[in-house]
TrEMBL record:
InterPro entries: VanZ-like. The keyword Lipid metabolism does not apply. This is VanZ family protein. The chain crosses the membrane at residues 12-29, 49-69, 76-95, 107-125. Keywords: Membrane, Transmembrane, Transmembrane helix. It comes from Nocardioides daphniae. Residues 42-123 form the VanZ-like domain. It holds the Pfam family VanZ.
Length: 145
């Protein structure tokens, strides 16, 4: 599907916009929870039994896949998503009215999901290149070379 989207920038952009709306709703829409602490510093690797951590991994996969295909730069999409996740956690930490808590585990899980999305985008771009003769994905910006 990702390889099919490479030449369909408008469709990819619309899907990315929808994915960002979902991501924003799931991370920044206020809840009615009362929290004792605003932020947790913890380091756990997501496992199948940890539903919230796995959900945080899955949350960023489509966003980075779509952004990586749209920009044709999966690594840039990965770095941007990891930074966005950090920003989301910071907002959750400093705005208690959201009823959300920040956690380093959430950032780690989101970044793992972003890495999976970047990997899928890279595969999609390579497949597109193979079957269309288009140039392959740019892993770094042209300014860096």
């Amino acid at each position: 599907m990702g390889a099919w989207l490479v030449d369909r920038r408008r469709t990819t952009g619309v899907l990315l916009g929808l994915a960002l709306v979902v991501l924003t709703a799931l991370t920044l829409v206020p809840t009615s929870r009362d929290l004792e602490r605003g932020c947790f510093v913890e380091w756990s690797v997501p496992t199948l039994g940890a539903v919230e951590l796995v959900a945080n991994v899955i949350l960023f996969v489509p966003v980075v896949l779509l952004l990586g295909v749209l920009l044709r730069r999966p690594v840039v999409a990965l770095l941007g998503a990891s930074g966005a996740s950090l920003l989301i956690e910071a907002v959750q930490a400093v705005v208690p009215a959201l009823g959300r808590s920040c956690s380093t585990n959430d950032w780690v899980s989101n970044t793992i999901g972003a890495a999976l999305g970047a990997l899928l985008a890279l595969v999609a771009l390579k497949l597109h290149h193979r079957f269309s003769g288009d140039r392959g994905p740019e892993l770094v910006s042209a300014d860096a070379s």
